[in-house]
Write a structure and sequence with these properties.
alpha/beta; 6-stranded mixed β-sheet; 12 helices; 5-stranded antiparallel β-sheet; ATP hydrolysis activity
Length: 278
């Protein structure tokens, strides 16, 4: 049985000009200990599909699917209270902008311990000890002292590490990382990716990596789904995708990598759109 299984997922939003379909007919499965990359340019519906899984879309969204299960449990018919027991514990998500996702009014220690309070039976002292352990695990120095820091007192890379600490606090079975290295410098990007892969291997999690960076895909993924305008263009294991891409859109993404430049000008996805649709 797959850890997460989705069939024919569609997500639409009510707008002033009618229903806008952000995701159309997506199929997806992931097992424990597997790394699945979902890749595509901004606006391709990557994040929206995963927010549907988390149950975090606004009321203006219409979510339909033939099947959406986690460990065989139906996420579509699950009550809000049942979903709250899973989200943050068994399924966790690292959001795209850590500064925006962390609450500026509370210390990072409070925000880590709140997750533990909601989903575990640990006492106050144990929650504090676990929070220190988590900050150390994600590579933050002076962990005990940093618990009292507010998000604005930490760097972007440190806030990203705090977000990871919150996400893994309850040892989730599935971790969704939404553009986890966005807006970080190259050195910090490498550290964050290495940390995620180490944690995934240590805890045996399923890991969904949402990205537009084909370099990240090559470095982390076992399997890849390519999305464009809310639709799945193709799915393959990572080696097959890079060596023999099937869709025009995937070839465009790969050709836009700097190492694939063949002339003075680097190709863009738009060049391939002019040659034909994906």
């Amino acid at each position: 049985m797959a850890l997460l299984e989705i069939k024919n997922l569609s997500v639409g939003f009510d707008t002033s000009v009618g229903l806008f379909m952000a995701v159309q007919g997506i199929d997806l499965t992931i097992d424990s200990r597997e790394v699945l990359a979902i890749v595509g340019e901004s606006g391709s519906g990557k994040s929206v599909a995963m927010l549907a899984v988390m149950g975090l879309l606004p009321n203006t969204a219409t979510v339909t699917a033939d099947k959406m299960t986690f460990e065989g449990r139906d996420l579509l018919t699950m009550s809000d209270s049942e979903r709250r027991k899973i989200v943050g514990k068994d399924i966790a998500m690292i959001f795209q902008e850590p500064i925006a996702s962390l609450n500026p009014c509370f210390t990072v220690g409070f925000q880590i311990m709140e997750t533990l309070r909601q989903h575990t039976s640990l006492g106050k002292k144990q929650r504090h000890e676990r929070a220190v352990e988590l900050l150390r695990l994600v590579g933050i120095n002076d962990a005990a002292e940093r618990l009292s820091a507010y998000p604005h007192q930490m760097s972007g890379g440190q806030c990203q590490r705090v977000m990871i600490a919150i996400a893994i606090a309850c040892n989730p079975k599935l971790l969704i990382a939404d553009e986890p290295t966005t807006a970080l410098d190259v050195t910090i990007q490498k550290q964050i990716l290495d940390l995620l892969m180490k944690l995934q291997e240590r805890h045996g999690m399923g890991l969904i990596m949402i990205t537009h960076d084909m370099g990240v895909v090559a470095e982390t993924a076992d399997r890849v789904i390519v999305q464009y305008k809310g639709r799945k263009m193709e799915e393959a294991d990572v080696l097959t995708l890079f060596e023999n891409p099937k869709s025009n859109y995937t070839r465009a993404l790969l050709s836009a990598l700097p190492e694939n430049a063949t002339g003075d000008r680097l190709p863009t996805v738009a060049d391939f759109h002019m040659e034909g649709s994906p």
